[in-house]
C-alpha cells in the first residue's frame, strides 16, 4: 500500500530534478530545509529521525541534494522526507513536507479490532512493518 | 526526430542555425561587458589580472555558444587561485569574478562565501567534516573564497584536522564542478609551498592568477579614487606630501598596498577633523570640509619614524 503523507504523495514519485526545484522554491521563500527519515510510517508518527540539523542560510538546492544523496546511501531502505520550515512568525513552522524516498515494498497497515465492554469495538491501525524491530523493517 | 536522448533536449528546443551566432549580441545578452568595464574602472592597475579575467570570460562565452550549437562541451574547470601580497585586491576581484560567472551562467546564484581556516576546520575529532560540509552547502551555486588557504595545511602537525577539510574540499571540487567554484587566495610564496605539499589542489585548479604589487603612481591613483568616493580631495601640497608618504611607507614593514592606503586616508580624515575642530570660532565652507591639507598628511608617524631612523639607518622596523 502506497504511503500518502505530505505534499505530492498522490503523484508519481518526484524525480531528482523535480525535488531540486521544490527545494529551490523553499530556499527562495527563505525557509530552512530539513531531511528526516523513519521506518515507522504510522500517520501519527510525526517526529521522524533528523538527518543532521536543519539547513539554514543556503542559497542553492545542490547543497541539500548532496545531503539527500548521502542520506539515501545510508537509509535508502526507509522513508525519507524533506521539510521546509518558515520562521517568519517567530517560530519554526512546517510549510511543506514531501516524501523523497520509499522502501521498495510498502506493506501497508493492519486494522486491529478490540472488543470492549458491551458490544463496543475499538479500531486501531498498525503498520505491518512495525511487527519487526527498528532497523529490520524494510530489509 | 532522430535523437531521443534527454541530454540534448535543450539544443533541440532552442535550435541555433549553424554558423549564425552574433557574437556581439551574445556578449551583450550575457551582460559581461558591463562587469568587465566595472572591473577596469574601479580597480587601478592590475593589468595582468584584468587580462586574465578577460581571457577567461572570452573562453566562457565561447564555451556557452558552443554548447548551444550542440558541440560537445565538457563543463570547464573554473577553480582559481589568487596569489599576491596583502591589499592587492584579491577579494574585490573574487566578487567581480563571481558576478561574471553568474552572468555567463556558470554558477547559478553568484554569491560569494568568504571563509578562512577557522570556518572550515574543527577543534576536535569529528568536528571538521560537518563544519566543512556546512560551508560547502552554503557556497553551493556560488563561489567559495578561501582566504589564506595555506593555513589549511599544517606540515608541522600531522594529526592536524586541516587535512580532513582539504580532502572533503578536493572531493567536492572534483565531483560537483557545476555546483561550486572554489577560489583559493593567499600570499605567493606560501601558496607555492601549499600547492607543493598538496598536488591534488594544483591539478584541480585551472587558473592561477598572480596579483602584482601596486606601483607608487597606482597607489596615488587609488588614494585619489578613495578620497573622491568619500568627497574629499588633496590640496596641492597635501598630494605632494602624500607622494612622499607612500615612498616612505613602502620601505616600512607590514605594508599592505591598497589596504595601507585606505587606513592612511582614514587617519588623515581623523586629523583633518581634529584640525577643523581645534578652532571653534571660524565658519567652515564646503571647500574646507573637502580639503585634506599637507599638515594632515605630514602629521603621520611614518614621517616621524623616518626622521628618527635616518641618522642611524639600521632600525627600520621601529614604528610605534
Tell me the helix content of chain B: 55-70%
- Taking Cα atoms only, what radius of gyration of chain B do you get, to the nearest Å? 25 Å
Low-confidence stretches of chain A: none
Assigned CATH architecture of the domain at 16-106 in chain A: 2-Layer Sandwich
- List the chains of the largest interface with their residue counts: A-B, 12 and 16 residues
**Assembly state:** heterodimer
Strand order of the largest sheet of chain B: 2-3-4-1-5
How big a fraction of the residues of chain B is strand? 5-15%
Estimate the global geometry of chain A from the Cα principal axes: globular
What profile does the largest beta sheet of chain B have? 5 strands, parallel
Q: What kind of sheet is the major sheet of chain A? A: 4 strands, antiparallel
Range of helix content of chain A: 10-25%
Secondary-structure blueprint:
The complex is a heterodimer of chains A (139) and B (320).
Chain A: H1 16-28, E1 32-38, E2 49-50, H2 62-75, E3 79-86, E4 93-101, E5 109-115, E6 121-127
Chain B: H1 9-13, H2 23-30, H3 32-42, H4 47-68, E1 80-84, H5 90-103, E2 112-115, H6 117-120, H7 128-139, E3 143-146, H8 162-175, E4 181-186, H9 188-197, H10 199-204, E5 207-211, H11 216-229, E6 233-234, H12 236-251, H13 257-278, H14 286-290, E7 291-292, H15 294-298, H16 301-309
Parallel strand pairs in B: 1-4, 1-5, 2-3, 3-4, 6-7
Helix pairs in contact in B: 3-4, 3-5, 7-8, 11-12, 11-13
Amino acid at each position: 500500500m502506497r504511503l500518502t503523507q505530505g505534499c505530492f504523495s498522490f503523484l508519481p514519485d518526484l524525480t531528482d530534478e523535480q525535488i531540486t526545484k521544490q527545494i529551490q522554491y523553499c530556499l527562495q521563500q527563505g525557509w530552512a530545509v530539513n531531511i528526516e527519515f523513519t521506518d515507522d510510517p504510522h500517520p501519527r508518527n510525526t517526529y521522524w529521525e533528523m538527518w543532521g540539523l536543519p539547513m539554514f542560510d543556503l542559497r542553492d538546492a545542490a547543497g541539500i541534494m548532496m545531503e539527500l544523496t548521502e542520506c539515501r546511501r545510508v537509509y535508502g531502505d526507509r522513508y525519507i522526507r524533506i521539510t521546509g520550515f518558515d520562521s517568519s512568525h517567530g517560530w519554526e513552522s512546517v510549510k511543506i513536507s514531501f516524501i523523497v524516498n520509499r522502501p521498495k515494498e510498502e506493506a501497508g497497515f493492519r486494522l486491529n479490532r478490540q472488543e470492549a465492554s458491551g458490544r463496543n469495538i475499538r479500531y486501531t491501525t498498525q503498520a505491518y512493518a512495525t511487527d519487526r524491530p527498528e532497523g529490520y523493517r524494510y530489509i | 526526430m532522430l535523437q531521443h536522448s534527454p541530454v540534448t533536449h535543450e539544443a533541440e528546443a532552442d535550435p541555433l542555425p549553424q554558423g549564425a551566432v552574433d557574437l556581439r549580441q551574445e556578449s551583450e545578452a550575457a551582460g559581461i561587458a558591463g562587469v568587465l568595464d566595472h572591473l577596469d574602472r574601479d580597480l587601478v592597475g592590475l593589468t595582468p589580472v584584468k587580462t586574465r579575467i578577460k581571457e577567461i570570460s572570452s573562453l566562457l562565452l565561447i564555451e556557452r555558444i558552443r554548447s548551444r550549437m550542440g558541440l560537445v562541451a565538457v563543463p570547464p574547470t573554473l577553480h582559481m587561485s589568487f596569489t599576491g601580497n596583502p591589499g592587492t585586491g584579491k577579494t574585490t576581484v573574487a566578487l567581480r569574478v563571481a558576478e561574471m560567472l553568474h552572468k555567463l551562467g556558470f554558477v547559478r546564484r553568484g554569491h560569494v562565501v568568504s571563509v578562512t581556516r577557522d570556518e572550515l576546520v574543527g577543534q576536535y575529532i569529528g568536528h571538521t567534516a560537518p563544519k566543512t560540509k556546512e560551508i560547502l552547502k552554503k557556497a553551493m551555486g556560488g563561489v567559495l573564497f578561501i582566504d589564506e588557504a595555506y593555513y589549511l595545511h599544517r606540515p608541522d602537525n600531522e594529526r592536524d584536522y586541516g587535512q580532513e577539510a582539504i580532502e572533503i574540499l578536493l572531493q567536492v571540487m572534483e565531483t560537483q564542478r557545476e555546483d561550486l567554484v572554489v577560489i583559493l587566495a593567499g600570499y605567493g610564496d606560501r601558496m607555492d609551498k601549499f600547492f607543493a605539499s598538496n598536488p591534488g589542489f594544483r591539478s584541480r585548479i585551472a587558473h592561477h592568477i598572480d596579483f602584482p604589487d601596486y606601483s607608487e603612481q597606482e597607489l596615488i591613483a587609488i588614494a585619489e579614487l578613495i578620497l573622491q568616493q568619500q568627497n574629499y580631495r588633496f590640496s596641492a601640497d597635501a598630494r605632494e606630501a602624500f607622494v612622499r608618504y607612500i615612498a616612505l611607507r613602502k620601505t616600512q614593514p607590514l605594508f599592505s598596498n591598497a589596504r595601507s592606503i585606505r587606513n592612511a586616508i582614514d587617519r588623515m580624515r581623523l586629523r583633518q577633523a581634529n584640525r577643523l575642530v581645534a578652532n571653534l570660532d571660524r565658519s567652515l565652507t564646503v571647500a574646507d570640509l573637502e580639503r585634506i591639507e599637507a599638515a594632515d598628511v605630514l602629521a603621520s608617524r611614518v614621517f616621524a619614524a623616518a626622521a628618527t631612523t635616518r641618522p642611524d639607518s639600521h632600525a627600520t622596523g621601529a614604528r610605534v
